[in-house]
Amino acid sequence: EPEVTQTPSHQVTQMGQEVILRCVPISNHLYFYWYRQILGQKVEFLVSFYNNEISEKSEIFDDQFSVERPDGSNFTLKIRSTKLEDSAMYFCASSLTGANSPLHFGNGTRLTVT
Amino acid sequence: DQQVKQNSPSLSVQEGRISILNCDYTNSMFDYFLWYKKYPAEGPTFLISISSIKDKNEDGRFTVFLNKSAKHLSLHIVPSQPGDSAVYFCAASANQGAQKLVFGQGTRLTINP
């Protein structure tokens, strides 16, 4: 069964450094997403991406965050200058269409900011 | 943000019996609901979904029930198997274009042999 793949599985970075989290969504899916889960908290929406542009973003997704689909297969999340509170599990997801289309998640990247 | 709530942090069920997981929501704009299962060190795995035009959806051992007037949904697993032990999340969205899912906090289900 096709799946969403994320790399790396664990990323440790120093505060103030830039990180790029990578994802390969399911190949025929059209919508792409990033969610995150801070330890002990709920999974929360960051951003959705469709037709090469952001379709919606949450208040968390400020100017430090950006997303890109640099080619036909990869989808990336960049955090420009990491803060301690960015430490979390970051999940990429994709869906075939928008409405009534379940999201399929990757296994996540654990980001630790020291 | 308490728009989606799972009030039971944990549930223990005997193998072969029915597991019932519950979820409540407050936002009347939600019209698409999903259940995910999550094992440690893995991402959420999609189980089953239901649109607000239905009150029941079934897929094998999994059935989701939606009670719109009570803003309540439940997931029934029957018969429960040891491999069902995991954390279960309900999620909801106002179904407009891309899916901005709002998740509950999860219920840890343990199936006892």
- Could you tell me how far the N terminus lies from the C terminus of chain A, measured between alpha carbons in angstroms? 37 Å
Oligomeric assembly: heterodimer
State the end-to-end CA separation of chain B: 36 Å
Mean pLDDT over the residues of chain A? 94
- Output the radius of gyration of chain A: 13 Å
Q: Main beta sheet of chain A, described?
A: 7 strands, mixed
Helix content of chain B: under 10%
Write up this protein.
The complex is a heterodimer of chains A (114) and B (113). Chain A has 114 residues and is mainly beta. In chain A, 0% of the residues lie in helices and 50% in strands. In chain A, strands 2, 4, 5, 6, 9, 10 and 11 form a seven-stranded mixed beta sheet that branches. In chain A, strands 1-3-8-7 form a four-stranded antiparallel beta sheet, with no helix packed on it. In chain A, strand 5 and strand 6 form a beta hairpin. The radius of gyration of chain A is 13 Å and the shape is globular. Chain A starts with a strand and ends with a strand. By secondary structure, chain B is an all-beta fold. Chain B has strands spanning 4-5, 10-14, 19-25, 32-38, 45-51, 56-59, 62-67, 72-77, 86-93, 102-103, 107-112. In chain B, strands 2, 4, 5, 9, 10 and 11 form a six-stranded mixed beta sheet that branches. Chain B has a five-stranded antiparallel beta sheet with strand order 1-3-8-7-6, with no helix packed on it. In chain B, strand 6 (56-59) and strand 7 form a beta hairpin. At the A-B interface, strand 4, strand 5, strand 9 and strand 10 of A face strand 4, strand 5 and strand 10 of B.
